[in-house]
Specification:
One of its GO terms (cellular component) is cytoplasm. This protein is of the alpha+beta class and about 425 residues long. It is about 35% helix and about 20% strand.
Length: about 425
């Protein structure tokens, strides 16, 4: 309490110069502690610290379902993704095989399951009917989660983009976006975002993509991604299960982190276990002529990459539009490539194998929950109440955290705890 009282007294100084000078003197011991912690983290990292984080099992990555029992451990402290600003959208194409569900879908939504081999059933179980139900509720904002806070509303001549964020009681911040592409079909957009071979040409953060397993019956895929991050962060590895459901010309594309023994866990790149990124792609009216020549993509995304959430949210806000506006040129290049008659990649071919569900079944999933989420707007400057922390502390903490990422577990615990304490003080002031 004495520490808090002293800090409040400093913040009540009548002049900004006086407040900053007192604040610098007040925080100097903290900076010294941080520096000592960084040095200790660099010089000493016991073997048990590397494995300590693996004892914590995440339950926030996905909706409660049979698949959630496969939730895996993730190391270090709860944290979010700086990479949320690289919103990946799904991809789709319209021809669909007669897909058989090995999941908990009703008979009206699927054909016979008996022809699925046991091995194919195991692959399909990576992404299940529970995941379809969850994304349907997200699309209709009936999942009962916190209110969505609007972050952005930007556009170009051929694309418009809106983004929202919300902070659940547990787990990292969640992001929702709506992107409208003019003169694009849902099928092409689905293939564009499913095509890992082409993605490396426009997504400059993706440095490796490989298909580990695939199910030719349901289109379920198990893929490995490695994404590049700034020099102070190690690269991140993702083991992703993904699958697409089709209802008319609407496509529900689910991707999420799943456990797999096919790729051994390594120190570098650091594996991201808590990962959820799913889209609904559908044809909508164009803003130009009112015809169904535009494509709408609703994205729902969250992940835990080992970066403190408040700093990650600041990075997302600053870099989101710069990353998103690069997607449209990539899509137009993909359109030209497809128009030239270029052959489909294997990933794009797999995007065409969907599980068909009826529109009535989708509506029953959407209406299954009576609790709807609200949507709130913030002013264009993006200043929110939870961001009233003095910028000096945020910037200084960010630099120190960047220097100590992936070093000492004790260092990260100390820094994160102090940052959260200051964040709570800042929100109360």
């Amino acid at each position: 309490m004495a520490l808090l009282s002293a800090l409040l007294e400093i913040l009540r100084r009548p002049t900004m110069v006086g407040m900053l000078s007192e604040l610098m003197m007040f925080t100097t011991p903290l900076w010294m502690v941080f520096i000592v912690g960084v040095l200790v983290g660099w010089a000493w990292k016991p073997r048990w610290a590397k494995n300590l984080g693996n004892c914590y099992v995440s339950k926030d990555a996905l909706p409660a379902s049979p698949s959630s029992s496969m939730s895996t451990c993730f190391a270090s402290i709860p944290s979010l993704k700086l990479n949320a600003l690289k919103f990946q959208l799904p991809s789709c194409v319209s021809w669909t095989a007669d897909d058989k569900e090995s999941l908990s879908l009703p008979p009206a939504a699927t054909k016979s399951d008996s022809s699925l081999s046991q091995h194919d059933a195991e692959k399909s179980a990576l992404v299940t009917g529970e995941d379809l139900e969850h994304i349907c509720r997200l699309v209709e904002e009936s999942d009962g989660g916190p209110a969505w806070i609007q972050m952005m509303d930007r556009s170009t001549p051929s694309m418009s983009y809106q983004a929202w964020r919300r902070d659940p009681e547990t787990g990292p911040p969640q992001y929702r976006s709506r992107t409208l592409f003019e003169d694009a079909t849902p099928e092409l957009v689905r293939e564009f975002f499913w095509d890992d071979e082409f993605r490396v040409k426009w997504d400059d953060m993706l440095i490796h993509a490989a298909t580990l397993e695939e199910c030719p019956t349901t289109g379920t895929m198990l893929v490995q991604w490695v994404r590049k991050f700034p020099f102070f962060c190690s690269d991140r590895e993702y083991i992703i299960g993904r699958r697409i459901w089709q209802s008319g010309r609407s496509y529900y594309c689910v991707t999420k982190g799943v456990p797999s023994s096919l790729v051994p866990r390594r120190n570098k790149p650091r594996r991201v276990d808590l990962y959820y990124s799913s889209w609904c792609i559908r044809a909508v009216e164009s803003k130009r002529d009112g015809q169904l020549t535009a494509c709408e993509v609703l994205l729902f995304h969250h992940e835990d990459m080992g970066i403190p959430w408040e700093i990650a949210k600041l990075g997302v806000r600053q870099g989101m539009w710069g990353a998103v506006k690069k997607i449209d040129p990539g899509l137009r290049a993909y359109q030209k490539q497809r128009a030239s008659g270029a052959p489909l990649s294997r990933c794009a071919f797999m995007a065409q194998i969907n599980t068909k569900v009826s529109a009535d079944y989708v509506r029953s999933l959407e209406n299954n929950s009576s609790n709807s989420s609200e949507v709130e707007k913030v002013d264009s400057s993006g200043k929110q109440k939870d961001q009233n922390i003095p910028k000096l502390l945020v910037v200084g903490g960010a630099i120190l955290l960047a220097c100590s990422l992936d070093r000492g577990l004790l260092t990260k615990a100390v820094i994160f705890g102090v940052a959260r304490r200051f964040g709570r003080i800042g929100r109360r002031l």
